[in-house]
Structures are given as structure tokens and as C-alpha cells.
Amino acid sequence: MEVFVLGTGGMMPLPGRNLTSVLLRREGDLFLFDCGEGTQVSLRMLNLRWKKITTIFISHTHADHITGLPGILMLSSQVERTEPLTIIGPPRIKEYIETSRQVLDMYVNYDIIIKEIEEPEKPGIVYETDELIIRSVPLNHSKVCVGYILEEKDRPGVFFPEKAKEAGVPCGPMWSQLQNGQTVELTDGTLVESVQVMGGTRKGRKFSFVTDTSFVPALAEEVAGSDLFICEGMFDRSLAASAREKKHLTSQQAATIAEKAGNIKKMGLIHYSPRYTERELKNLLKEAREIFPDTFLCRDRMRLEIPYEE
Predict the structure, then answer these.
(1) Residue 64 catalytic?
(2) What is the C-alpha to C-alpha distance for residues 1 and 132, in angstroms, rounded to an integer?
(3) Residue 247 and residue 160: Cα distance in Å, rounded?
(4) What distances in angstroms separate CA 12 from CA 1, 19, 233, 249, 264, one per listed residue?
(5) What is the pLDDT of residues 16-28, one digit of tens each?
(6) Is CB count within 10 Å lower at the N or C end of the chain?
(7) How far apart are alpha carbons 49 and 293 in whole angstroms?
(8) Within the chain, where are the H helices?
(9) Is the pTM value of this prediction over 0.85?
């Protein structure tokens, strides 16, 4: 599992700082979280195959999180996309996409599936496969806004061939059956259960994406146990009042959520106010690390790996 930070800015793009967008790649699937202005530029620079993006998750319909979307939709028609593209977001995302297509007279030669989250004020599963789920969680912003949490389902335990041999199971199809959790019967009628040759289930990985919200204490429980927590830290503590008024987080508030959550391996700050120069961003990091030391600054086109636990 890899995460590519495509943009880190809030409100307006700056030289070297696109608007907020994050891509997650897992087993060939590409999931895009938000699509700010400049997303295509970073995709190109990182040589990522955007036509392989299967699903786009939009947090809310403020311009700095969706202005890159029409370009992505039009571009996908130019690279001979054949697979459908699913877009998931809060109410009005469908209206935005359909209006953009009409006004821009957009040529689209593939299916676009739009799913609006019916109850964005409640946590709920918005995407699921045999191997993972993605949940939306309510945030508190000036517009209906959600965060997203990707969690892999537990994986089967490690298969021990020596135990299978000791139990008399010959190498072959029965080994696969045992690895799939089935019980097999030997020629003498002996039953061998999967638990006899398999280790315990292994925990999957967890990725959380939260941006554009005031401080919501309940978020800590939702993001707990994240291998990677990407969270906005738009302001430093001197602008706490402004953050509260505009319903954004300071870097210290983001760190407080991470610290209270527990078992978060690392947190990356994102969605910086354009008032901060690259040098001044270090103040955001310093203030966050006072509360949650395992914090880093996301940078445009940064690649992050999320390995399995040993």
C-alpha cells in the first residue's frame, strides 16, 4: 500500500504547492481522495496512471477540493479509459459533476457512477470489497463535509507446511483448501481443520484522511489505530480563533486528535493556509510535535509506504 501526496495547499494553489489531493495505491487499485487544482500536474510528474483510478472520494464541495475534477474526467476520455469511474461524496457532488459536464460540453466515453452519501452526518460504509472497507465520518465545517477511513479486513494467518505434513495432508489442492479456512478429509477418514495448520488472523492496515473541520473529539475514536493519519493542520496556535471561526484545525488540534486516538503510527499534516511560507511551515510541525511527536509535514509529490505489521 502506497500513498502519494499530490497537493498540500488550502484555499489557493501556490508555486510548488497544489491544492489538497491524496492518492492511495493498493494491489493495483488507485483511490483518489479529493481533487484540488493541480492534481493532474502531480499525477504526471509522478508518472502515475490516472486512468487506473477506480474511485474518487470527495470530502466536500468547496472549490479548493474539487476544481481538479473536471480536468480528470475529460483527461480520462483521452487515454482510452474503458473501466467505469466511481465518484463518492456528500450531497451536491452529483449536481456539480453533471453541471460541469453540461457547461463544458464534456466528452466522456466511459461510465461515471456517482454515489452521494445519504447521511453524511453519521459514520457509515461507503465502499466495500472482500478485502477492505472505506467509511465516511462526519466533520464539522462550513459546508457538509466528511473524512474517509480505509481499513483492510483481517488477513488469514500464516500457513505452516510442516504442520500440514505432520497431520498427514499431502502437498496439493488440500493445502489450498486449508489456507482458505476449509476442513479437509484424508483417505483414512481423518479430518484436518484449518486452525491446525494456520496461525492466527493478521490485522489489516488502516489509512485515515481528514481535512476541513473544526475540532471534533469523536474523531479520535474513528481514526484510532491508523497506520497513517493524514489530517489538516491549517493554522498555528496564534490563529486558533480564526481556525475556530472558519471551522478548521490548528496543527496542535490535529495532534491532540492523534494523541487521544492512540496507536497511530504517524500523522502527516496537510491543507496549509497560503499565508505560510515553506520556512514557516516548520512552526506548524514544531507545535504539533509538542503533543504528538510522530508528526511530519506532507509535501507535494511525497510518497509514503504503509507496510504490513511484522
Answers:
(1) yes
(2) 12
(3) 52
(4) 29, 7, 16, 17, 30
(5) 999 999 999 998 8
(6) C
(7) 34
(8) 39-45, 63-66, 69-78, 93-103, 161-166, 173-179, 219-223, 240-246, 251-261, 281-289
(9) yes
Residue type, 240: A
Q: Look up residue 308 and give its three cell numbers.
A: 504490513
What is the enclosing helix (H) or strand (E) of 225? none
Q: Are 225 and 264 in contact (CB under 8 A)?
A: yes
How far, in whole angstroms, is CA 215 from its chain's centroid? Answer: 20
The Cα 146–Cα 139 span in angstroms is 5
Q: What is the pLDDT at residue 77?
A: 77
Output the nine-digit C-alpha cell for 2.
502506497
Residue carrying the nine cell digits 489509512: 207
90 neighbors 117 (Cβ within 8 angstroms): yes
Would you give the DSSP letter of residue 156? P
Phi, psi torsion values for 296, nearest 5 degrees: -135, 165
Helices (H), 132-238: 161-166, 173-179, 219-223
CA atoms of 275 and 86, how far apart (whole Å): 34
| 118-132 pLDDT tens trace | 999 999 999 999 999
Instruction: Please tell me which residue in 64, 212, 236, 300 is annotated as part of the active site.
Output: 64
